């Protein structure tokens, strides 16, 4: 059997790898609807020149502000960004910081306040996701070239933006009860059909700018497929109201999507990212985060009892030597007769054993999901791993299939989703009109 050299994120049965994505989740959205009465940009828009400072209504954005915010994106992408893409990101970060200043200023104009205590509480929740002390978290940010102050400023802008939308946009959005009930009835009739959890990156475009926006979207897709964070790019580039949550649209059925996306999403593999697609008002990129059957028990919700055998590799182990080890390990684990002999086999092959009795198939990486969905109790996966983290084998000790069907969403849940979609559309129109009237002086 072919050896699968998968990334380190696939190796641990239970691991805490959400840290970088939490940093990605702090990038501010582009879709500001703020006025631009007094904007002066000092410097150059040449992407080859690194200095860039802006004064937005008297508030200064320094080159340090830009670098620290850019480094949050690079941390989220684990440094997988080339020099050209870094410069593009840098310009985008500068635009986002200008929007952020405008968001905070406009919120203040409409008496929307964000207290320091609220910002600190949100910051502490982010830090807690790293499962390390506050001192270690702040050291991690500084080591990556960012700072706690940069994150706090992002948090302040996002809270201000959200409250301003609730105050200035959402009151004028109307979703009728009959519309909500119609959606619920259609969901009931769709029992057993597929529904999808979708991520989106929306870029606005006019007929004149469509070609350039498509080219930009294509570069974003290349970066994400090369290992960059979809969440980070959604935060930095998306002009949808889903940008603050990394582009997550939640669970939808194909018929709830636009005709363009309805033709794309069902054909995506779980975890895949689409090519850019032209939609009304611009260009979109979608990612299929997950899928399931409407109101049906999902095989991916089966609870597994597993033992993991972990075999370290020496730093100088060649691929040929590793393949020889894989052949020997696979021969011994495939015929070991189940979990009862896992410790004895582990001792024979120099492995350590970790047990986990509460792991859903859905929580595993997609390659392992496909193997474990059909693996019999007592069976073992083929060895997998990497040079750095060694080889792993999972042994299936037991499986409890889910007997609980997914629940029909409540009236409030359906109403909330429909309301959010309409707020997003209204915000984009508002932004389009403000940009058309904006006066920006460059020096």
Automatic annotation (TrEMBL):
Protein name in UniProt: Parvulin-like PPIase
Signal peptide, first to last residue: 1-20
Keyword Signal: yes
PROSITE patterns assigned: PPIC_PPIASE_2
Pfam families: Rotamase, SurA_N
Gene3D superfamilies the record matches: 3.10.50.40, Porin chaperone SurA, peptide-binding domain
Residues of the PpiC domain: 193-290
Keyword list, A-Z: Chaperone, Isomerase, Periplasm, Rotamase, Signal
GO molecular function, one term: peptidyl-prolyl cis-trans isomerase activity
UniProt-listed PANTHER family: CHAPERONE SURA
Entry annotated with the keyword Signal: yes
């Amino acid at each position: 059997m072919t050896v699968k050299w998968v990334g380190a994120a696939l190796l641990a049965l239970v691991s805490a790898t959400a840290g970088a994505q939490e940093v990605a989740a702090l990038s501010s959205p582009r879709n500001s609807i703020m006025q631009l009465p007094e904007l002066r940009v000092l410097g150059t828009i040449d992407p080859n020149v690194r200095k860039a400072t802006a004064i937005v209504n008297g508030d200064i954005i320094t080159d340090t502000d830009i670098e620290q915010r850019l480094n949050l994106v690079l941390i989220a992408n684990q440094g997988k960004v080339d020099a050209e893409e870094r410069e593009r990101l840098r310009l985008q970060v500068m635009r986002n910081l200008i929007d952020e200043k405008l968001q905070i200023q406009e919120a203040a104009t409409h008496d929307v306040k964000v207290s320091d205590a609220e910002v600190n509480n949100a910051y502490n929740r982010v830090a807690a996701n790293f499962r390390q002390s506050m001192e270690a978290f702040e050291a991690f940010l500084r080591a990556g070239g960012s700072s706690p102050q940069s994150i706090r400023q992002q948090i302040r802008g996002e809270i201000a933006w959200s409250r301003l939308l609730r105050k200035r946009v959402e009151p004028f959005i109307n979703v009728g009860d009959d519309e909500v009930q119609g959606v619920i009835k259609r969901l009931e009739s769709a029992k057993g059909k597929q529904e999808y959890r979708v991520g989106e990156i929306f870029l606005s475009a006019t007929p004149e700018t469509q070609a350039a926006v498509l080219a930009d979207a294509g570069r974003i897709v290349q970066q994400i497929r090369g290992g960059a964070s979809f969440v980070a790019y959604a935060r930095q580039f998306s002009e949808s109201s889903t940008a603050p949550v990394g582009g997550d649209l939640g669970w939808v059925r194909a018929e709830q999507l636009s005709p363009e996306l309805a033709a794309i999403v069902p054909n995506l593999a779980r975890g895949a990212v689409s090519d850019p697609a032209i939609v009304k008002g611009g260009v979109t990129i979608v990612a299929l985060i997950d899928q399931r059957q409407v109101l049906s028990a999902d095989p991916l919700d089966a609870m597994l009892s597993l033992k993991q055998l972990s075999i370290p590799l020496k730093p100088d182990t060649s691929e040929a030597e590793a393949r020889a080890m894989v052949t020997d390990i696979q021969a011994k684990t495939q015929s070991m007769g189940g979990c009862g002999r896992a410790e004895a086999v582990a001792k024979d092959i120099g492995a350590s054993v970790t047990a986990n009795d509460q792991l859903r198939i859905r929580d595993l990486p997609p390659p392992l999901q496909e193997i474990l969905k059909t693996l019999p109790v007592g069976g073992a996966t083929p060895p997998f791993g990497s040079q750095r983290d060694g080889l792993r084998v999972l042994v299936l000790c037991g499986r409890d299939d889910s007997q609980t069907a997914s629940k029909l969403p409540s009236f409030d849940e359906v109403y909330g989703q429909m309301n959010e979609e309409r707020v997003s559309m209204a915000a984009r129109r508002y932004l389009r009109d403000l940009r058309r009237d904006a006066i920006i002086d460059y020096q």
